[in-house]
UniProtKB/TrEMBL annotation:
Pfam families in UniProt: YbaB_DNA_bd
Coiled-coil ranges (or none): none
Region (Disordered): 108-147
UniProt biased composition (Basic and acidic residues): 126-136
Keyword terms: DNA-binding
Protein name: DNA-binding protein YbaB
InterPro entries, per database record: YbaB-like_sf (IPR036894), YbaB/EbfC (IPR004401)
Native organism taxonomy: Bacteria, Bacillati, Actinomycetota, Actinomycetes, Pseudonocardiales
MF-aspect GO terms: DNA binding
Amino acid sequence: MEPDQWLAQYGEKIEQAKRNAAQAETQLGGVGGSATSPDGLVTVTVNASGALTDLILRPQLRGEDPERISGAIMTAVAQAQRAAAGKVVEIMTEFVGDSPALEFVKAKMPNGYSGDGTDAVEPEPELQRRDTRPDDDYFTNPPDVMA
């Protein structure tokens, strides 16, 4: 390969890396996460780095135990951080693939990231948990209620 040809190819690789970095920066700049407490009284939003950018406390919280409120806030913040981190991992996977660089990014997520296999499992809605068998089947083979 001619030195000029090699230099041109190398220059193109550098330019592509710069374009990819700019695109990743643009995409990561818009990343954030949001979470609401199960009772709907606390909502938080975080940016890509997990820093709190918005906190909404509903008026129904007046008179509540401060420890309960702070616990709800911290739980929601951790959930929002996991959501934002999951988006960061998705974007970084697109740019660096499954690589040591991606593993480094994942390791720096203090609360993990959504999709890491440790997400809390949402309970099934009550309608899906109900035993809908006919009465004859139910009483012939009742469910185990004693463990």
